[in-house]
Amino acid sequence: MARLKFIAWLLLGVLLLLAGVGAALMSVDPAMFRGEFEARASAALGRTVQLGGPIRLERSLTPRLVIGDIKIPNPEGHRDADFATAEEVAVQVALLPLLRGDLQVLEVRFSGVKIFLEAASDGAGTVLRRAE
Fold this sequence. Notes:
The protein is an alpha+beta fold. Helix content is 33%, strand content 28%. It contains three helices and six strands. The chain is rod-shaped.
């Protein structure tokens, strides 16, 4: 009888813990990480990345982070102000591996992407550098 009571309390504790984690995830505003997202994207591309639109998190077993109005500006002296723009980028990940600390990207979806390429007088084009 004592063992059954212990298992019942243990299950209740696990359920309360899961409910608490779920409530915490529901209250997280992904927009508070805007600076971190911009810094990591800029480091990955070797250019400044500006996230001007809304950032939202679609919560599910395969959560999706959706970021709007993305701009990658050109350096000064280029004809076009921006190297690339996107109306929206959505990244979907697997939840269970993420909870274990393993990022598993399931889908990346771009919409409204525009890329402005130009060649310099010496024939060299606009280049994105990969950060080392």
